[in-house]
Amino acid sequence: MNLEVRHLRVICAIADAGSLTRAAASLRMTQPGLSAQLRRIEAMLGGSIFDRGQAGAVPTAFGELVLSRARAILPGIDGLLADTARAAMAHDRIRVGSVGAPLLADLIVAVRELIPGAEVTARCQYSATPLLDDLVAGRLDAAVLGDNPGKELSPRDGVVLHPVVTEPVFALLPAGHPLAGREEATLAELVEDDWAMPHPDSDRTREYWASVFSLMDRQPRTPYEAEGRQLIEIVRTGLAVSLCQATFIEVPGVAVRPLAGDPLWYRHVLAWHRDGPLAAQGDDILRRVGEGYLATCAASPAYARWRKRHPSSVRLGRIEA
């Protein structure tokens, strides 16, 4: 894990709020998630930044040094981002972002078809929160986001959030796992395995998964925290099980299976800046991205079989799935 600008913002937010609870609310994070992130930041920097007690979060001497540098750095970075954002707008550049989801390529193709000649750039983040921040600040024009039931993205000034589809969450298993031979897996059986899970960061996926496991009065053992390729490799080698989006396409060594009873769901969301260059194209972009999603569904065998058994369970924006 490398130190990033967002980590400096987290440190300053905690100092300004005077407590992790208030800082978590301002950052739209959970207090445990923020506490875990702070521990990782302190581990990277090599010292405690705050003393945490009844008086709240008070900077240590080491923390005062970190805060003084962070507060000196951030205004320059914010100015740079604002200037480059204006320059990008002046050169007909459309900037899009995405969480790990299957809609990004369809969004890029839609933008290129609807605005011929525009240069389209893209960047990805694991969490939706920094992408939303960039949309609010005008550093992005559109983004593919995602959330879970009860943990929905909060509305933000100047940003249009449009749900595309809510789909079931599937199990991601080693190909040799006993449940890989079945049509469905059950959480009650999987909870006995070791798990690989994403970091409990500003993304609330871990919190949502934990809330579903709590209904079983069990929480899985989670010796592995990973994302993306690393998580898939941990599962592929048989070290753990995990969860994935229904549209995840199986790779050698892993198996994707629906969860019996569909206990977990994931919502894909398209977002764009209300005053940005894509605002007038919103309906067309939504339709084209939706059509691309349907094609992706067909390319995922496990999801295609599930959809056949549940023909009316998934509705896609304004398009019947």
Outline the structure in words:
Keywords: DNA-binding, Transcription, Transcription regulation. InterPro entries: LysR_HTH_N, LysR_subst-bd, WH-like_DNA-bd_sf, WH_DNA-bd_sf. This is LysR family transcriptional regulator. Residues 1-60 form the HTH lysR-type domain. The structure is a single chain. This protein folds into 2 domains: 5-78, Winged helix-like DNA-binding domain superfamily/Winged helix DNA-binding domain (Arc Repressor Mutant, subunit A); 92-321, D-Maltodextrin-Binding Protein, domain 2. The protein has helices at residues 5-17, 20-27, 31-45, 61-90, 104-114, 128-137, 187-190, 205-214, 228-236, 282-298, 301-309; strands spanning 50-53, 56-59, 93-98, 119-124, 142-147, 159-174, 194-197, 221-225, 242-245, 254-258, 265-273. It is built from 11 helices and 11 strands. Strands 3, 4, 5, 6, 9, 10 and 11 form a 7-stranded mixed β-sheet that branches. The chain has a two-stranded antiparallel sheet with strand order 1-2. The protein has a two-stranded parallel sheet with strand order 7-8. It is globular. The model has no long low-confidence stretch (mean pLDDT 88). By secondary structure, the protein is α/β, with parallel strands linked by helices. The longest helix is centred in the N-terminal third of the chain and has 30 residues, at 61-90.
